[in-house]
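Hi support team,

I've been running sequence recovery on a batch of backbones for a student project. Most finish fine, but this one hangs at about 90% for roughly twenty minutes before it completes. I'm not sure whether the input is malformed or the queue is just slow. I've pasted the structure tokens below so you can try to reproduce it. Let me know if you need the job ID as well.

Thanks,
M.K.
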């Protein structure tokens, strides 16, 4: 299988495996390997964004999961649900996340459909 990927892509795969402590990269990274420059840039950007910072790692995963749900990316939903669970997301937190994402989708659509003007104090 390694012969299917450019050496540049294999080097990024090694960085991903080392950072995540996994024996194999997942399909997302393998798919990006069609363009090793895109693969490296995406890995570096993701690593920077998801690195420890002002937001707790679980919060970051849950935000990523919420954005993925909103975008409708089945792969990203599955991947980031697993990542959030690995970071400690409980079933109760997952349930509340689903409720918030669902409510936001509903109220966002209502506000857009009704063309609700933005209140001055929100601007």
């Amino acid at each position: 299988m390694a012969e299917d990927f450019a050496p540049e892509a294999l080097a990024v795969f090694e960085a991903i495996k080392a950072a995540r402590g996994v024996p194999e990269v997942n399909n997302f990274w393998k798919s990006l390997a069609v363009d090793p420059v895109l693969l490296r840039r995406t890995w570096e950007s993701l690593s920077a964004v998801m690195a420890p910072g002002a937001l707790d790692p679980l919060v970051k995963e849950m935000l990523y999961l919420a954005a993925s749900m909103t975008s409708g990316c089945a792969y990203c939903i599955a991947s980031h649900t697993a990542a959030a669970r690995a970071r400690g997301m409980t079933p109760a937190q997952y349930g509340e996340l689903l409720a918030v994402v669902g409510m936001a989708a509903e109220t966002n659509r209502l506000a857009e459909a009704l063309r609700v003007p933005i209140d001055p104090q929100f601007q």
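--
Follow-up from support: It reproduced on our side and the slowdown came from queue contention, not your input. The mean pLDDT is 96. No action needed from you.
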